[in-house]
C-alpha cells in the first residue's frame, strides 16, 4: 500500500502559512497555484515553475472523501524539489485552507458516502456546486496579500465531467470579478483548459521528462474513492470511478502515441 506522508520539509499548518524562503521577495513574479495533490494540479504546478514564477501552493480541505490527496501533496512537493533542484528556490508558502462549510452546504458524492451516479440535472453527483468559485475567491484573497497577480488552476473543459465551474467562460467572469473586487488585476491561468488527459500526460513529459511523469504516477492522487493500495501503470486508484477512468484512458492513449 502506498502511503502519503503527512510530514514535509516545509511543514503545513492548517490555516497558518509558513514564512517565505530566504531571498524571496514580494517583488518577484508570483503565482498562487491551486494545488490539490492530483495529476492536473501537479502538471499545472510544473507549468508555473517552468514559466519562471515563484509559486505559493494552496490546497483546500472541504471534507472530501478522497482527502488522502491532501497528505499526498507533501510527497509531490518534496519529490519535485528533489528531482528538479533548479526549481527549488521558486517555492514560497504552502497552505491548506480548511473549508468544512463547503462540504456541508454543497453536499455531493465527493463529500458524502454514496454511489457515484448521474443526477437529474444531467451532471454527475460528484459535482460540488460553486467549488471552484469558492476556491478562486480564497486564492484571490491570498494572492492579494502575497503580491501575486496570477492564479493557476487545473480546470479543463475537454476531458471533464461537465462541471459548469470548469468552463473557461465561467473562469473569465470570475477573473473579472476578482480583479474588480480586489481593485487589482488578477489573471486566472488554466494551462489544461483545452487539453484532454492524453495531452496532459504529454505536457508533463514536455515539462519534466520521465522524472516528472514518474512523480505524477507514484505520488499524486486522483481517485474519487481515495483508494491507494494498488499501483497501476498510470498511478494509484480504484480504476473504476470517473477520475480513474479518465486518468487511465489518457495514460493509455498517450503511451500508445509515444
Which SSEs are present, and which pair or pack?
Blueprint: E1 30-34, H1 39-50, E2 54-61, H2 68-83, E3 91-98, H3 100-105, H4 131-146, E4 150-152, H5 168-182, E5 187-189, H6 197-219, E6 231-232, E7 235-236, H7 242-257
Parallel strand pairs: 1-2, 1-4, 2-3, 4-5
Antiparallel strand pairs: 6-7
Helix pairs in contact: 1-6, 2-6, 4-5, 6-7
In summary, what is this structure?
By secondary structure, this protein is an alpha/beta fold.
Give a count of the beta strands, DSSP E runs of length 2 or more: 7
What count of domains describes the coordinates? 1
Helix content percent band: 40-55%
Number of helices: 7
Low-confidence stretches: 5-26
* Fraction of residues in β-strands: 5-15%
CATH homologous superfamily annotation: HUPs
Amino acid at each position: 500500500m502506498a502511503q502519503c506522508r503527512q510530514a514535509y520539509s516545509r511543514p503545513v499548518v492548517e490555516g497558518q502559512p509558513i514564512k517565505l524562503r530566504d531571498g524571496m521577495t514580494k517583488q518577484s513574479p508570483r503565482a498562487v497555484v491551486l494545488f490539490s495533490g492530483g495529476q492536473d494540479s501537479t502538471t499545472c504546478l510544473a507549468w508555473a515553475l517552468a514559466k519562471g514564477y515563484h509559486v505559493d501552493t494552496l490546497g483546500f480541505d472541504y471534507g472530501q472523501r478522497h482527502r488522502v490527496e491532501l497528505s499526498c501533496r507533501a510527497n509531490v512537493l518534496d519529490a519535485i524539489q528533489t528531482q528538479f533542484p533548479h526549481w527549488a528556490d521558486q517555492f514560497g508558502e504552502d497552505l491548506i485552507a480548511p473549508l468544512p462549510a463547503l462540504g456541508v452546504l454543497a453536499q455531493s458524492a465527493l463529500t458524502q458516502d454514496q454511489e457515484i451516479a448521474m443526477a437529474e440535472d444531467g451532471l454527475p453527483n460528484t459535482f460540488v456546486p460553486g467549488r471552484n468559485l469558492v476556491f478562486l475567491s480564497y486564492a484571490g484573497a491570498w494572492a492579494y496579500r502575497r503580491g501575486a497577480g496570477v492564479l493557476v488552476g487545473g480546470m479543463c473543459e475537454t476531458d471533464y465531467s461537465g462541471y459548469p465551474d470548469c468552463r473557461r467562460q465561467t473562469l473569465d467572469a470570475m477573473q473579472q470579478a476578482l480583479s474588480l473586487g480586489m481593485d487589482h488585476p488578477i489573471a486566472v491561468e488554466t494551462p489544461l483548459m483545452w487539453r484532454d488527459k492524453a495531452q496532459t500526460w504529454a505536457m508533463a513529459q514536455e515539462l519534466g521528462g520521465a522524472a516528472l511523469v514518474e512523480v505524477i504516477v507514484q505520488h499524486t492522487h486522483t481517485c474519487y474513492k481515495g483508494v491507494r493500495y494498488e499501483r497501476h501503470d498510470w498511478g494509484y486508484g480504484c480504476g473504476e470511478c470517473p477520475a480513474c477512468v479518465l486518468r487511465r484512458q489518457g495514460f493509455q492513449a498517450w503511451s500508445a502515441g509515444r
